[in-house]
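Support request, please re-run this one:
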Amino acid sequence: MDFQIAPEVEFLRQQIREFVTSEIISLEKHYDYSSGRMPDSINQDARKKVKAAGFWTPHLSKAEGGLGLDLLGTCIIFSELGRSPIAPFIFNCDAPDEGNMHLLSLAATPFQKETILEPLKAGTLRTGFAMTEPSPGAGSDPTSLQTNAEKKEDHYVLNGKKWYCTGANGAKYLIVMAKVNDSFRKTTMFLVPTDAPGYTMVREIEVMGSHGPGGHCELNFENVIVPQEMVLGRVGEGFKLSQERLGPARLTHCMRWTGMARRAISIAREYAKDREVFQSKLADHQGIQWMFAECVTEIEMAYLMTLKAAWILKEKKDARQEISMAKWKVSEALCKAIDTAIQICGGKGYSRDLPLELFYRDARASRIADGPSEVHKMVIGRNFTSGKWEA
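Re-run finished. Output below.
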């Protein structure tokens, strides 16, 4: 198992780190707390700079206009992008579009690629991924999926409800998971245009953290006609494709989170080096040093767990256990790092003079999204007790 960073990847990492520091972080002052978004004109100007610098869609192959990184390299670069909550969108590799590009590249027909993937890569449209449903529908338990597509000659009739569909407000297409003819075994992904009759974006759900472009939305599908050519992959491949998408997507989330955790603790370090209390710098107090020691060690552990899972996936081996471990522990390391940074910075950390309070609100979702920590712990424990994985 080799985690040595290739020289070309390390060079690229340093370039992107410098770009994020000089060109992106300074734009965070434009963040609109009332809407939970950045002004579109600021985003578009920044995207032009990213394209001019040659960093656009870094997760894609060179043939598709990306940087040609493997999963390990992608994780390393995403860790740098994660240092700013606005950077992934500006680099065109934010969720859910990043995962949807991967899925479309893997399973889409030439027609689907031309219609959706190409403009998605160019950044001229956005998409959503609609899998989660309100109770009693599917959340962490996919067997409770309620949305259904009834086969009718050369098309399907889609009915159901979804929620927490990230990016749906303003998206041009949605990837929708649904049973076919009420058969769970025939669960399938459908590509649904948001101007389809019968589709309604019910609301953008108000959440604790950032909305991001497109928010997190509740959706309704009432007798939506989906042509046969808008089936993604084959009928019955829905869960197979979802694992192809969600495994790497969880790891890229983890790397973005390590970047945010590192920035948070670095902000606290700079504050502690300047702040003087009880006749010495805050950073010189042993209690503060121990707080830093715990956080940076846990961040490093989380980083290495993510790289290990990425390496296993790169080797085309089963990484589900390692992905669950990484997703659980990285989300906890993130929340602890930001909480500790706020504590060290005191009143200033709690204020909007620093970005820590925004990081804090955003980070709380990490322990719920893409499977809550308790579900990942259940999976890890079950695999161990059944003998499928050895400690």
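The mean pLDDT is 94. The CA atoms of residues 232 and 361 lie 35 Å apart.
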